Recover the amino acids of this structure.
C-alpha cells in the first residue's frame, strides 16, 4: 500500500506544505513572506506571525492540489530544526495537533537532511536520476555551508562546515553593502551575468581540512568598497556587474576548492549540491565543469527545490516512516540541530 506523507516546513521565512505518495510529489505549496524585504533581512517576530497566518491555508491548498482527502494521510512530518525558534514552533505545534486529531504518526525532520534528500524526490510524470550511496553533498544555504558524506538516506556525516558565515550569508551581506535588496544572492547572480569575473580580486581564506570561512571575505569586500568610494563616490554604481561577478567567482572558488579536495580524498565521484545557493548559476556551471574534468556524476536540484520547501521535509519523513522513526507528542523544536 502507498504511504502518503504531509510535510510541513516553517524554519525561516517560508511557510510550506507538501504531499507525497511514496517518493512521488503530489503538491508543494509555498507562501513567501515579503514583509521582511523592507528590513533587509528576516525579522524573527514577523516571521512567526506570518507562519501563524499562513499555515492553515497553505496546508489546505496542498491537500486540495494533491487531490486527496485528509483521511488518506499516513503521517505528518515537520521541520524540527535548525531554524528560528518562533518559526519552528508554529510548524511543530500544527503538526502535533494534526497528528493527534487524525491519530497518525508524527515525524520530526532535520531541515538539513531535507535539503539533501530532495534528490530522491520524483514528480508525477518524471523520474529523476538519483545519487548512489555513498555520495558527497555540498549543502549551501543562507544558514549553512557544509560538505556532507551521505552513507544512506538517514546516515550522514558532516566532513566540513563553515566556522562563521554561510555562503548565502556572504552573498546577502555583500549585496547589502552594495545597496542591493534582500535576499541578495539571486540579485548578485543576475547582475554577475553582465560582469567581468576577473576584474577584482578578493582574498580567499586559509582554513584547515574541508571547513569554510566567509566572514573575512565580507570584511575585505566592505573595506575595498570603502577605499574605492573615497576616490570615486559612484564606484559601486559604475562597477556593479563586475563587483558581483568577481565576488561570485570568489565564493564559488572557495566552495569548490574544498569540495574537489574532499571528492579526491574520499575517492567519490557521486556529487550533489543543495540548499538555496545551489540555484546560483556559477555554482551550477562549476558542477558541470567538474563533471567533465573529473568525471563526477552530478546531481543538481530543480530550482523550485533549492530554497526552502516542504517537499524535502515530506521525502525525509517518508524514509523515516519506512524506518518507523516516529516522534512523541512531547518533542520540542531546536534552533540548533546537527545532521
Ligand atoms: O536554503 P535557503 O532557502 O534557506 C536557508 O535554509 O538558509 O537559502 C537561502 C539563501 C539566501 O542566502 C539566498 O541569497 C541564497 O540562498 N540564494 C542564492 C541564489 N538563490 C538563493 N545565492 C546565490 N545565487 C542564487 N541564485
Ligand atoms: Zn534551507
Amino acid at each position: 500500500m502507498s504511504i502518503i506523507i504531509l510535510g510541513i516546513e516553517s524554519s525561516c521565512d517560508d511557510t510550506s506544505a507538501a504531499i507525497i505518495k511514496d517518493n512521488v510529489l503530489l503538491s508543494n505549496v509555498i507562501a513567501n513572506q515579503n514583509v521582511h524585504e523592507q528590513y533587509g533581512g528576516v525579522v524573527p517576530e514577523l516571521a512567526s506571525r506570518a507562519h501563524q497566518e499562513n499555515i492553515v491555508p497553505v496546508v489546505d491548498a496542498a491537500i486540495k492540489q494533491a487531490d486527496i482527502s485528509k483521511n488518506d494521510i499516513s503521517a505528518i512530518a515537520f521541520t524540527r530544526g535548525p531554524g528560528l525558534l518562533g518559526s519552528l514552533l508554529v510548524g511543530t505545534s500544527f503538526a502535533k495537533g494534526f497528528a493527534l486529531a487524525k491519530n497518525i504518526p508524527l515525524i520530526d525532520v532535520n531541515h538539513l537532511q531535507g535539503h539533501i534528500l530532495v534528490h530522491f524526490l520524483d514528480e508525477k510524470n518524471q523520474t529523476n536520476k538519483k545519487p548512489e550511496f555513498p555520495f558527497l553533498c555540498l549543502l549551501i544555504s543562507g544558514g549553512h555551508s557544509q560538505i556532507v558524506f551521505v552513507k544512506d538516506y538517514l546516515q550522514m556525516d558532516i566532513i566540513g562546515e563553515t566556522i562563521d558565515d554561510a555562503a548565502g550569508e556572504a552573498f546577502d551581506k555583500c549585496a547589502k553593502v552594495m545597496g542591493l535588496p534582500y535576499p541578495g544572492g539571486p540579485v548578485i547572480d543576475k547582475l554577475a551575468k553582465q560582469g567581468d569575473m576577473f576584474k577584482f580580486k578578493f582574498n580567499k581564506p586559509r582554513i584547515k581540512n574541508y571547513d569554510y570561512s566567509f566572514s573575512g571575505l565580507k570584511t575585505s569586500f566592505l573595506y575595498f568598497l570603502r577605499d574605492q568610494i573615497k576616490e570615486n563616490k559612484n564606484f559601486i554604481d559604475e562597477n556593479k556587474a563586475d563587483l558581483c561577478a568577481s565576488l561570485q567567482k570568489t565564493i564559488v572558488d572557495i566552495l569548490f576548492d574544498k569540495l574537489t579536495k574532499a571528492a579526491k580524498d574520499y575517492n567519490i565521484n557521486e556529487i550533489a549540491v543543495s540548499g538555496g545557493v545551489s540555484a546560483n548559476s556559477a555554482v551550477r556551471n562549476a558542477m558541470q565543469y567538474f563533471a567533465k574534468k573529473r568525471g563526477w556524476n552530478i546531481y543538481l536540484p530543480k530550482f523550485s527545490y533549492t530554497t526552502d520547501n516542504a517537499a524535502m521535509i515530506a521525502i525525509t519523513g517518508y524514509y523515516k516512516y519506512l524506518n518507523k522513526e516516529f516522534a512523541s507528542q512531547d518533542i520540542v523544536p531546536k534552533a540548533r540541530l546537527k545532521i
